[in-house]
């Protein structure tokens, strides 16, 4: 099997992911939809050959003993890829994700301006969350790149694997990969505070130890960036607290209230013009009110309402407000808006001009135009496509 040829077709199709398994032609994901490439179905022996070609000796040994492995690799003159090789029904299977060589800017990604402001926060913990494939790593890379271009910082990343490669510009960046430079996230972070960091990026928080270290680093005056697989702001807080035993919940709520700077949760939505996808973001900035809601478990569900009302003053927004903005700017269709918002019935009523008791939530994102007709503003064309998509 000529893996380079398949990867070239993947890039030509502007696909974000490639899937290979025995007996099935290669499958790519373009803007969230799976398509089959015009390539013969590989057999098990061919996929073993691909795996051996991509892995070094140490990685081959790890794969043989664990039956799966995460890593990243580059193809000269083509692109960089994040890969996972695993076993299914006794044969190898591969999932490859295209990682652009150039780190996109926050503006290219179409992220709200408050994300750039958060990137330059002097200290605290910032969590970027969302389901797999929602662009979390891309957002973090863009935030690091924004810092790297305009200020001098010592930045240390711990990733599994390293996806975007950063070149030193004004900042000094050390990128450490799990399995190559450190055995685990816990090991990678154990001595990080002795390495004189200003900013620490943790590729993903997966357990109590990593979460505790991230909070401790934020508590000592560092800016810590990381990701979680959660789908909204309130669920993110609940997930963090769930890492700890019940008797520690009050303590971790106090630590979060003191150190959590913001939560950015993403979903990618197909653009109206078919040119890729655009992120809808729910953004929570820790204000005194939200700090109070974090401390009190009974008030934590009220955070969603505080986010909805913090659009103008703090740059916060809920998913539904973000989706409404994208709809009014003509970037997404009404169908996609209703499919991706949290409260489709309420949004549908609003689009039909039917007022509800929660109308104050919509006021910051409404225009003078009739909400029943989506705007088609020229500036909509300025929003960039998500990397790897058309």
From TrEMBL:
<feature type="domain" description="Bacterial type II secretion system protein E">
    <location>
        <begin position="193"/>
        <end position="207"/>
    </location>
</feature>
<dbReference type="InterPro" id="IPR001482">
    <property type="entry name" value="T2SS/T4SS_dom"/>
</dbReference>
<dbReference type="InterPro" id="IPR050921">
    <property type="entry name" value="T4SS_GSP_E_ATPase"/>
</dbReference>
<feature type="region of interest" description="Disordered">
    <location>
        <begin position="364"/>
        <end position="390"/>
    </location>
</feature>
<comment type="similarity">
    <text>Belongs to the GSP E family.</text>
</comment>
<dbReference type="Pfam" id="PF00437">
    <property type="entry name" value="T2SSE"/>
</dbReference>
<dbReference type="InterPro" id="IPR003593">
    <property type="entry name" value="AAA+_ATPase"/>
</dbReference>
<protein>
    <submittedName>
        <fullName>Type IV pilus twitching motility protein PilT</fullName>
    </submittedName>
</protein>
<dbReference type="GO" id="GO:0005524">
    <property type="term" value="F:ATP binding"/>
</dbReference>
<dbReference type="GO" id="GO:0016887">
    <property type="term" value="F:ATP hydrolysis activity"/>
</dbReference>
<dbReference type="InterPro" id="IPR027417">
    <property type="entry name" value="P-loop_NTPase"/>
</dbReference>
<dbReference type="InterPro" id="IPR006321">
    <property type="entry name" value="PilT/PilU"/>
</dbReference>
């Amino acid at each position: 099997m000529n893996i380079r040829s398949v990867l070239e077709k993947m890039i030509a199709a502007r696909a974000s992911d490639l899937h290979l398994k025995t007996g099935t032609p290669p499958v790519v994901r373009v803007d969230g939809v799976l398509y089959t490439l015009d390539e013969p179905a590989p057999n098990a022996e061919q996929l073993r050959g691909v795996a051996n070609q991509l892995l070094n000796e140490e990685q081959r040994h790890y794969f043989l003993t664990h039956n799966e492995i995460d890593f990243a690799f580059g193809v000269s003159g083509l692109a960089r890829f994040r890969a996972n090789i695993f076993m299914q029904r006794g044969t190898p299977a591969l999932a490859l994700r295209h990682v652009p060589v150039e780190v996109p800017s926050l503006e290219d990604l179409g992220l709200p301006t408050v994300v750039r402001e958060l990137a330059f926060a002097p200290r605290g913990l910032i969590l970027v969350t969302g389901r797999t494939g929602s662009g979390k790593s891309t957002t973090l890379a863009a935030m690091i790149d924004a810092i790297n271009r305009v200020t001098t910082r010592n930045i240390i990343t711990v990733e599994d694997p390293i996806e975007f490669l950063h070149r030193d510009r004004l900042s000094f960046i050390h990128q450490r990969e799990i399995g190559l430079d450190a055995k685990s996230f816990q090991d990678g972070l154990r001595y990080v505070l002795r390495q004189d960091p200003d900013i620490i990026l943790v590729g993903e928080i997966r357990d109590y130890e990593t979460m505790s270290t991230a909070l401790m680093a934020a508590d000592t005056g560092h800016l810590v960036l990381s990701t979680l697989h959660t789908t909204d702001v309130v669920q993110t807080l609940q997930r963090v607290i769930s890492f700890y035993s019940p008797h520690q919940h009050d303590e971790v709520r106090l630590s979060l209230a003191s150190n959590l700077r913001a939560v950015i949760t993403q979903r990618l939505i197909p653009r109206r013009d078919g040119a890729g996808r655009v992120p809808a973001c729910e953004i929570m900035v820790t204000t005194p009110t939200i700090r109070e809601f974090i401390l009190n478990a009974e008030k934590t569900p009220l955070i969603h309402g505080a986010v909805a009302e913090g659009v103008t003053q703090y740059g916060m927004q809920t998913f539904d407000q973000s989706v409404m903005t994208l709809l009014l700017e003509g970037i997404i269709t009404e169908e996609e808006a209703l499919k991706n918002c949290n409260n489709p019935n309420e949004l549908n009523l609003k689009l039909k001009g039917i007022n509800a008791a929660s109308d104050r939530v919509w006021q910051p994102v409404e225009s003078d135009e009739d909400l029943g007709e989506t705007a088609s503003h020229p500036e909509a064309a300025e929003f960039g496509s998500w990397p790897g998509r058309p």
